[in-house]
């Protein structure tokens, strides 16, 4: 059984709600501390773009997490989003295991 959230959570939402807002840190201030363009963090926080390995490494260093945390978050979001989008198409694909029986 797979656990699913009511909706996929974008890593930008997590960054915004669990780090930026509670710490009173603006996207621009974080970007400056990370050595990134302000627009990159703003766009992640607005859920317009995803977290790249480069950004994951920087976020992990700054927030004392791991880059895998951020990349896994991104990957889970993308998989869940695509699974929902392709739900009907995926139902039409007959698994190979069914043929072997």
Describe this structure in words.
With 101 residues, the protein is mainly α. The chain has helices at residues 11-23, 27-34, 38-45, 53-63, 67-85, 87-91, 96-100. The chain contains 7 helices and no strands. Helix 1 (11-23) packs across helix 3, helix 2 crosses helix 3 (38-45) and helix 4 packs across helix 5.
Write the layout of secondary structure elements.
Blueprint (H helix, E strand, L loop, with lengths): L10 H13 L3 H8 L3 H8 L7 H11 L3 H19 L1 H5 L4 H5 L1
Helix pairs in contact: 1-3, 2-3, 4-5
Number of strands: 0
Q: Distance between the terminal alpha carbons, to the nearest Å?
A: 22 Å
| Biggest sheet record | none
User: What do the pLDDT scores average to?
Assistant: 93
Low-confidence stretches: none
Shape: elongated
Q: Helicity, in percent?
A: 55-70%
Beta-strand percentage range = under 5%
Cα gyration radius (Å):
17 Å
- Which structural class is indicated by helix and strand composition? mainly alpha
Number of helices: 7
Query: What order do the helices and strands follow?
Result: HHHHHHH
């Amino acid at each position: 059984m797979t656990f699913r959230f009511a909706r996929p959570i974008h890593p930008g939402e997590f960054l915004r709600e669990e780090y930026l807002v509670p710490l009173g840190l603006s996207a621009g201030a974080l970007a400056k501390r990370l050595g990134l363009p302000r627009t990159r963090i703003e766009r992640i926080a607005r859920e317009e773009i995803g977290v790249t390995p480069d950004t994951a490494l920087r976020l992990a260093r700054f927030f004392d997490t791991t880059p895998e945390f951020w990349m896994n978050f991104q990957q889970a979001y993308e998989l869940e989003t695509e699974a929902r989008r392709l739900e009907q198409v995926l139902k039409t694909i007959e698994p190979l295991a069914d043929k072997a029986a």
